[in-house]
Write a structure and sequence with these properties.
The chain is α/β, with parallel strands linked by helices. The protein is 37% helix and 16% strand. The protein is built from 15 helices and 12 strands. A hairpin with a 2-residue loop joins strand 1 and strand 2. The radius of gyration is 20 Å and the shape is globular. The chain starts with 14 loop residues before the first strand and ends with a helix. 47% of the residues are buried. The N terminus is likely disordered.
């Protein structure tokens, strides 16, 4: 889920060395206009979360294959889907949607069904990620990362420490205007549903309304709904607490040891981000080359070490140094994971209900 789901990058306005902003986010390598009809054998354009790309990865792929990668980034699944529906999706050969967005993309007929015979290393994927409710049999997606959603907090300034979502309401006065929630409808509503004793994926209109009403009580104390901008503010001490993803938590806790991460005791979401090939991908052959490259255990292990996200690749996990394998931010114990749910697709009328309440919450 994904950073927004998931990286520790400082936002900027303007050109940076080796990094240039575009309307889609930042772009590595040479910057040039999108060319939806381009079909170049030695070039790959991907659309991804900022956390999953760095120069070492791109240069390693180019050294092994001779293929140059242009990477644009998005900050939410909604941004990515909007780009697709605006016709920009035809420019890309690999996209990195979160698991729950895959179902919507399949429904909208935006994806190619994968030729699994062309993908090497699928047997290294952990069993729990070899199929999903969003895409049974993983016919359209390959998992690239996984994690949880929780609370990142300043352990020096917040005592006692938070243990559950209820802390936000119990300590509302202390946290007032110094906490943020993710800019994601299903994550925020789901967390509140869990607090109330319901499923993260409730389809009961009364339960969903209760979650909205609970959040409306908290709204005056929320500094913002953001999936990215909280990181620098939390590191600097301007915020006391943020709802965020485990991969982001790993990055900020390395930057500031006073920051800690907790998986709420009542339960949270267990997410994964994926790789898919768009239906109108300009270069699917190169897309398969990319997927095969990042599935190599040594490459996947190096990505985990450099980019601080949990890989679903068991062989990659086995290659990690012990301190990283034992890091409970990235790899929490099974006793905590049993309380987690993936964000699951819901029928259109229920999705519209979630969005109605979300709009009321964030616009009021």
């Amino acid at each position: 889920m994904h950073r927004s789901r998931r990286a520790f990058l400082q936002a900027a306005t303007g050109a940076l060395s080796g990094l240039t902003l575009s309307s889609c986010g930042w772009t590595l390598a040479e910057v040039r206009p999108l060319q939806p009809n381009a079909k170049t054998a030695n070039e790959l354009r991907i659309y991804t979360w900022s956390s999953y790309i760095d120069n070492a990865l791109l240069e390693g792929f180019r050294a092994q294959t001779g293929i140059r990668v242009i990477a644009d980034t998005f900050d939410s699944n909604e941004t990515m889907l909007a780009a697709f529906q605006a016709g920009k999706g035809a420019a890309y050969s690999v996209i990195y949607p979160s698991d729950y967005a895959v179902a919507k993309m399949i429904q909208l007929k935006l994806l190619q069904q994968l030729d699994l015979s062309r993908i090497q290393g699928l047997d290294n994927i952990l069993p729990k990620f070899q199929s999903s409710a969003h895409d049974p049999g993983n016919r359209y997606h390959v998992p690239i990362s996984w994690g949880t959603t929780g609370l990142i907090y300043n352990s020096v300034k917040l005592k006692p420490a938070p243990t559950d979502w209820s802390y936000l309401w119990a300590e509302q006065q202390t946290l007032s205007r110094r906490m943020t929630l993710i800019n994601d409808t299903r994550e925020v509503m789901g967390a509140t549903l869990r607090l109330l004793g319901y499923s993260y994926n409730s389809t009961n209109p009364q339960e969903i309304q209760q979650a909205y009403e609970k959040l409306a009580l908290l709204k005056p104390a929320i500094a913002s709904f953001t999936t990215d901008a909280w990181r620098d503010q939390l590191i600097a001490g301007d915020l006391l607490l943020a709802m965020g993803y485990s991969a982001d938590a790993m990055s900020v806790t390395l930057a500031n040891p006073d920051l800690k991460y907790v998986i709420p005791s009542s339960g949270t979401s267990l997410w994964s981000d994926t790789m898919v090939i768009p239906k109108n991908a300009p270069n699917p052959d190169v897309a398969y080359a990319w997927i095969n490259y990042v599935l190599q255990p040594s490459v996947a292990a190096q990505m985990t070490e450099r980019l601080n996200f949990a890989s679903p690749n068991q062989s990659a996990f086995d290659q990690l140094p012990a301190p990283l394998r034992n890091n409970e931010i990235l790899f929490p114990p099974e006793s905590l994971l049993t309380k987690c749910e993936g964000v699951a697709p819901v029928k259109a009328s229920i999705e519209e209900l979630y969005e109605k309440y979300w709009t009321q919450l964030t616009s009021s």
